[in-house]
Amino acid sequence: MSWIEKLWQTYEANRSEVGRLGEDHGAQLLPICHSTQQAQIEIAIDGDGQFIRARVVPKEDARTIIPSTEQSATRAGSKPVNHPLCDKLQYVAGDFVQFGGMVTSGYAKKPEEPFEMYLNDLLAWSESPFHHPKVEAILQYVKRKSVIHDLVASQVLHVDDVGQLLVTWGREDDELPEIFGLLRNRPQWDAFVRWRVEIPGDPQSAVWTDPTLHESWIRFYVSRQEKLDLCYVTGEEAKVATLHPAKLRHDGDSAKIISGNDTSGFTFRGRFTELSQAVGVSFEVTQKAHNALRWLIRKQGTTIGDFVVVAWDVKGEEIPDPLADTSFLLGVQASDEFFSTSNTGEDLARRLRQRMLGYSAQVGDTSRIVVLGLDSASPGRMSIVFYRELTGSDFLARIERWHVTCSWRHRYQRRFRRTEQHERDIEFVGAPAPIDIAEAAYGARIDEKLRKRTVERILPCIIDGQRVPLDLVDNLVRRASNRSALEPAEWSKALTIACALFRKLHEKEAYTMALDENRRSRDYLYGRLLALADSLEEWALNEAGENRQTNAARLMQRFAERPYSTWRTIELALGPYKARLGAKGRRRANQITEVMNMFVPDEFTDDRKLSGEFLLAYHSQRQALWDRRHEQSADNSTSESAIV
Amino acid sequence: MEKENAVEFKVHGRYALFTDPLTKIGGERASYLVPTYQALKGILESVYWKPTLTWIIEKVRVMKPIQTESKGVKPLKYGGGNELSIYTYLRSVEYQVRARFVWNPFRPDLVQDRNENKHFFTARRMIERGGRRDIFLGTRECQGYVEPCSFGEGSGYYDDIEELTFGLMFHGFDYPSETGREELRARFWVPRMEHGVITFIEPDECKVSRFVREMAFEKIAALPLVADGSLSDVLMAGDAK
User: Fold this and answer.
1) Which one of B17, B19, B20, B22 makes the best mutation probe of the A interface by having the most chain A beta carbons within 10 Å?
2) Beta-carbon separation of B26 and A258 below 8 A
3) Judging by DSSP bridges, how do beta strands B143-148 and B135-136 pair with one another?
4) Does residue A638 carry a pLDDT above 50?
5) What ipTM does the predicted assembly reach?
6) FRET partner for A567 with CA separation of 20 to 30 A, picked from A434, A624, B25, B79?
7) Which residues of A touch B173 (CB under 8 A)?
């Protein structure tokens, strides 16, 4: 699969984004050979390496792009390798031990070692043909071995009476210095330092935003790679990577897609005796591809536990999120009106068409869209569980098809209205999001693994147009029929989602969202009967001011199992409510009789289980009644105002 | 070769896993979208093979849509126990293949076996029988079935699609027994699928080639049957009874 090639192309196509801070999602397309770290201390020096000032970096600004090596980017353990330029105090401060700092346990025997390693690396960089004036300045300053001394003098770090760094801030009464607040349970000397080099005439004093410095590090690092071998992606001789990047899904993620550490077993051994024989990817390609992937996942990926789905256009244009429901796709607002049922289907199709046209104007017919799904069965290794490459027009067509065919009227989404503080229910017509489908099928407190598995199963239905899984629809129908077991809001959500999925599964039957008064199948008619009985009883109860659950609601599950016998119970119980409503309710009662007459007699007395079709009819009928009442009251109010 | 000796067959199965080397090392194997030259050669060698000949795959036609499916697996670890992995297979595959054979020049001891007719007709018969050995599509767990067919018959899913490319892909291995050199090399190429058909380039035409490691070429010589009388006393004893 050419996923890595596609990611590499994405990086190259989006070069202008490299190093820029994303708007609100904090996603950055990092330059290669760099990673990010949270920095707590910022030291500003001048071009000759003289200390100017230092400060504690507030949490919002802490994210820093730092040059890193393959080893330092994935460092762990008791002897972590140093970063080349910005690093923790134990590496940059020559006077670390003097002030009582404790190095990481692996260095305990030689506490100056971290500083020496750092200094040597910095020296090598500044003596190479790729040196940079800022590096020189930092080198000069660091050589003085006065970092901690200067930090204490600037009151960034705090010492006790004998001049040793405080482990914790003992004094309760005084205000906690910022450095302790940022580091929480870690000691002061665990702080991470970043540099500012203020050279007159250079507007970019910050080391982490200077593109010339990024470039200098990249060129220096690549020049030091030795191993030349075939790159399996480009097909050319190049410097190959020995380690591949991690931290893909989030900063604490140690899982790698390309990882090879099984030297004793036979994961790849057999024909090959060593890892380098099995595969080689050039350093540049793997760094760029993984950086692009990291950026895309943070910018527009959806994460469900360990499972990540990300869809992107190689050229970087905006595309619809395959896992979004229609309310997000169409940008439904809280102020939108409620639909009338009669033409919802066409209305939805029209709006989707317009939205897709909007996208396709940007995306174009031939551009490549890639949909990638990643999951890990074990920490440390990530596998590609879903990979599709589509043309722009194909992708948009399939998304559109999903949203049109798997649609129903839903009322479970909430949005903020502009003038109000709390969220309101909004109604939208369209397809539910896979996460909502999973929750509707298995409950809101669903197991993480089950949730991601379900979303994984639904993804090919959206992207490939595969049939929805039968067992999923069964679960949805069963749950939606069990009204008494669920809270009203949860039940309503389960009902509409079950209707959407059932309708999608039985696409050939061409069920309409609006009530189909000509449909005479047994399940459909039974659904209508239940809705009519339910609404009649509810009306009667409302009139009387009673707040009980209707018989129809209570018996819904039994009705689904044994419709004929349960219907008799419901119908008999309707008697008193019909009487209560009197003449007003006659119309509704007549409707019930009409529907009963539409049955084929044998089918009516058939007591077998109902399929999900009855849910469709139930919901459609209820909506029809509700809409009619809504229209009537609107009519009444307008006519009244006309009179006035 | 005097006559044209191409054979045609179709191979199909429920799952296939033509491992992408990038994912092989981590243990989370994912399949290439189309079979490699080496995989098809392996299938044909399972059907019929003699050391006298070397199969050359000419072209493959993809009949069904390319779909992947991921499965969680529990592969065994060499040191005992299991580990958890996710393998991504190709689902429901069917390929029509056309291939021919040439004599293996590095087996001069088998010159007298170079009978074109014999090998050609036996290969055809073995295809009709579905192969001498088990057929597997890439990895061993993906069972496949071989049947005779005429290359190009029937309608395939990709017949109307003019061209699809797949990036750089593994082509095959150069083994010492087929190249005469004592090294294992890996070859790569960029396949293009035109109207569903991928026409392979021959091993020597692969420009991208990589030395993997040294591999010894065991000099095998076919021994002719010679009567040396060592079993004659056993035979005599049997007759006496």
Assistant:
1) B22
2) yes
3) antiparallel
4) no
5) 0.80
6) A624
7) 271
